[in-house]
Design goal:
single chain, 189 residues, alpha/beta, Rossmann fold, two-stranded antiparallel ribbon, 9 strands, 40% helix, globular
Length: 189
């Protein structure tokens, strides 16, 4: 488990997240808890610069762990998976992607996992922000129910609360953060 705050790209990502994604105020988190700040990674990853930076950082982590399939919980992980796939294509790195729905579709193929999912692949899950890790644990459960095994979880931001990154490392064996709350706060104005 690690947060990479020493590299130039990690500092660049923290600066961009501080400018585009960080908000102070009163917010209810997905975990149901109240917080005096919110980090909306989508505000960063839905910019060209943010998508490129996140995609590059994710692809580096995935390649370092020999990951061949990347996915995550819809909706938050979808732009992250896409950014990683685009960067992988640029590098010629073989990578497929998928996403996990909160519930099984009641139409079409009736799948909970959609995209190119291969249970025998070396699988990583990505998440935008981790507090407790509960959302990603649901995705781990879905992957395991489909016969797969998660080798790595990578989150863009570790909120450094509730032991989320540690919880995910316990379930997946490895969990890493591209940046952290502390790094973002260093750059927040």
């Amino acid at each position: 488990m690690s947060a990479d705050t020493s590299t130039d790209s990690a500092r660049e990502l923290a600066r961009l997240l501080a400018r585009l994604s960080y908000r102070s105020g009163s917010f209810r988190l997905a975990s149901g808890k109240q917080s005096d700040f919110y980090i909306d990674v989508k505000q960063t990853v839905f910019t060209a610069a943010g998508a490129e930076l996140v995609g590059r950082a994710l692809c580096e982590r995935l390649a370092a762990h020999d990951i061949t399939s990347v996915g995550g919980m819809a909706v938050g992980a979808v732009p992250l998976v896409t950014a990683a796939l685009v960067e992988a294509a640029r590098r010629g790195y073989p990578l497929d992607g998928f996403f996990v729905r909160r519930e099984v579709k009641d139409h079409g193929t009736s799948r909970r996992i959609d995209g190119l999912f291969d249970a025998s692949a070396r699988i990583a899950l990505v998440e935008d922000v981790v507090t407790t890790g509960e959302s990603t644990v649901q995705a781990i459960d879905a992957v395991e129910a489909a016969g797969g095994k998660v080798a790595l979880v990578v989150t863009v931001v570790d909120r450094q609360e509730e032991g989320g990154l540690q919880n995910l490392a316990a379930r997946a064996g490895a969990a890493e953060a591209l940046t952290s709350r502390a790094s973002i706060l260093e750059h927040a104005g």
